[in-house]
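Researcher: Here's a chain I'd like modeled. Treat it as a single chain, no partners, no ligands.
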Amino acid sequence: MCFVGRQKEMQKLACALEQGRHVIVSGAYGSGRTRMVHQAAADLSGERRFVFTDFSKTPGEVCGSLLADFRPKAPSGRPVRSAHYRTGRNLLAGMQLPEGPQPVIVLDNLGRLSRQKLSFLRDLNMEHRYLFIAIVESFLTERSLFLLRACLFPCATIALGHLPLRDACNYFQRLAARHGLGVARDDLLALAKMTGGYPLGMKETAERLLRRSKGPSGSSPEEVSLP
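Model: Modeled as a single isolated chain. Structure tokens:
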């Protein structure tokens, strides 16, 4: 999987977690927010546990997803994989964690922050057992963003924009080398300039380039990840 750029943002994210601070990742659609956090999770997997959950779902569904991942123990000592919402929320908020760095819960697709979701997040954060990375959608309201920052205080905010030209060039050069495309350097530079460093545009352009190289009867191309 091809991942380029974002060195400063990745360093800021890693430093924030090391300092015990939560992180809010923002940016326009297609800017590679989730892809960057997945890469950070892979890079830091030897140091921390990362658990991803879709925060566009209901608090009950999110709670169920986290229960399945963490499997907290009931008073009887039996691991709990599912429970009613209130019971599950209390188990997650009060569970005993192994010694070491706090696990990181990644809240993906956060586009709406209801009172129920905010309450759920506060309950989980009350005992400071977890660190959170919130990947917020561009349409999240300013008021909701303010409440999220207050709930996750202290937190660092990382805003993703387009990639610089050198990173876009690097992406297409690595793509060409990996798949043996034999595209001239000037043409790769033209592709980088055409996409303007927009990660989703780069991915779509790369996929078209791979399909063209396979021919009409070729096999389906390998997926190219967002940079």
